[in-house]
Write a structure and sequence with these properties.
By secondary structure, this protein is an alpha+beta fold. About 50% of the residues lie in helices and about 20% in strands. The longest helix has 26 residues.
Length: about 190
Amino acid sequence: MSTELILENIARHIHLTAEEQQYFVSLLQTRQLKRKEFLLQSGQICKYSAFTVSGCLRGYTVDEGGLERVLNFAPQGWWMADMYSLLSQKPGTLDIEAIENTDLRLLSKANQEVLYQKVPKFERFFRIITENSLVAYQQRVMDNLSLAAEERYNNFCKRYPSLIYSVPKKDVASYIGVTPEFLSRMLHKMLKG
């Protein structure tokens, strides 16, 4: 199941031979996180790209006032890393935490570099993943600057349809940039309307 899921994810962008698939899978590490367990904490250097086999991760920062700001989620079938830290190999600012028991496959930065040498088409795969992430990030910034909270919530629902009912409302509120109380009132109003 886990191997099939990650290979299906890759097959959306590149074609691998059976040997290339086996080689890629041999470079992965398995890691299970319990709910509220961290994959990465602010100040650490990100050494892995993580693929979610089951469960869900959330990436967030904590501002000076102690308020969490959720930047993204990685439900089943998604990749996550602190991209700044992974690419620069400098301490990052992102906390990556499991919001439920989560099964991951990790590809280390070192193994990713080896993979580029042995199977060059993986450079294309990770370029596409990085480009998609950049586009989504830019769109999210633009949405936060120009859209009303209800529209930002609707965009969250389109981006993460599997998370609408499973992610804590406080995380959804943080992601769309409102308080949990505001989100509750807004959802109540949307149900009535």
